[in-house]
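Design job #97: recover the sequence.
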């Protein structure tokens, strides 16, 4: 079914499952979140899994390059259509995501906006989400927290870090964690020992 047909079939009260969500957050900018997300998307796609990507930003900007799916005064959801830019959603699409979404939403409307967005995701698709605020409102299948090696955390970041399944440190070039040890089994993310 095409994405446009899925959007047309939306119900006003979607029932959303989060078992297919892999969440990535971090201790600010330049900690490797998008690079890690792209590596994870490539790994999952190469393991024959269909993957969607979602970048969530708490800032709303004019968004003319992407195809707007929904927009009101509280949030804007668009579908990335280019693989040749440096935007995070474009990089995720280039990494192999079947669809890459960009959600711009203020924190107070995040739950509503995410529920709407998640209603577009087929149940058999793994969704890699980059968002700093999403962990406050849902428990994903797996949650990675990224930080720069040796940098102090802000209080807000420390709270997110405490909820992570896996903490990954980044030195600006490499991660202290290998994506190669990850695999999906029965739709859930697992790790080789």
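Job complete. Output follows.
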């Amino acid at each position: 079914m095409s994405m446009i047909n899925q959007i047309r079939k939306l119900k006003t009260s979607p029932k959303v499952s989060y078992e297919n969500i892999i969440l990535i957050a971090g201790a600010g900018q330049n900690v490797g979140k998008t690079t890690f997300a792209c590596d994870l998307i490539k790994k999952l796609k190469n393991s024959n899994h269909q993957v969607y990507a979602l970048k969530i930003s708490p800032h709303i900007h004019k968004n003319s390059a992407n195809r707007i799916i929904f927009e009101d005064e509280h949030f804007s959801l668009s579908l990335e259509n280019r693989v040749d830019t440096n935007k995070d959603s474009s990089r995720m699409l280039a990494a192999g995501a079947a669809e890459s979404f960009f959600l711009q939403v203020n924190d107070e409307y995040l739950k509503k906006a995410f529920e709407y967005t998640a209603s577009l995701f087929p149940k058999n698709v793994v969704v890699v989400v980059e968002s700093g605020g999403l962990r406050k409102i849902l428990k994903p299948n797996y949650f990675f927290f990224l930080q720069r090696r040796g940098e102090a955390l802000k209080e807000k970041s420390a709270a997110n870090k405490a909820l992570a399944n896996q903490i990954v440190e980044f030195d600006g070039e490499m991660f202290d964690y290998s994506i190669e040890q990850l695999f999906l089994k029965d739709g859930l993310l697992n790790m080789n020992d």
